[in-house]
Amino acid sequence: MTIDKYILLKDITSDNWRTVANLKVNRNQLDHIESNTQSLLEAVYDNDYCWTPKAILHNQNYIGFTMYGDYNIKDKSIWLDRFMIDSNFQGLGYGKASLDFIIKYLKENFNLKIIYLSVHDTNSLAIQLYETFGFFNTQNIDPNNDELIFSYTV
Question: Which domain of life is it from (predicted)?
Fold first, then answer.
């Protein structure tokens, strides 16, 4: 069975937001990403960026969370602002399958040339994953969080 055939993104609703909020990364990753609760609040109240939060499911199991937004029509760019896999599902191939699905989803739903994301400079596993997919370090720092900005050319 290939994992990627069973990955899907699901809207966050009043029925599933608690499930998404309860998804957690490993303890040693807590400093590398905001909590899903904080991300959900940003999606509601940080209106400047038009964030869209989505649950990541595999075979109807909630395995992760992502959030994208700040779509720039002129530059044809978008930010993949959050991407996490729950600690119970890490190391099993879900991260790669989910990121692959998210990239395809963004390319199909937006007229894109570039996908941006930022990553903590000590998050070597995430950096390695992103580089595997063709993201590269732009050598710029995100002024909002002092993280490295990575870019993917569509």
Answer: Bacteria
Tokens 């904080």, residue located = 38
**Cβ–Cβ under 8 Å, residues 65 and 55:** yes
- pTM, whole model, 2 decimals? 0.94
79 within 8 A of 116, measured Cβ to Cβ: yes
Domain boundaries, the chain: 3-153
Q: String of b and e for 83-98 (b: at least 16 CB within 10 Å)?
A: bbbbeebbeeebbebb
Annotation marks residue 130 as catalytic:
yes
Question: Can you tell me whether residue 141 is helix, strand or coil?
Answer: strand
CATH of domain 3-153: 3.40.630.30
29-65 per-position pLDDT tens digit: 877 789 999 999 999 999 999 999 999 999 999 999 9
- Catalytic pick among 68, 94, 130, 152: 130
SS3 sequence of 55-83: EEEECCEEEEEEEEEEEECCCCEEEEEEE
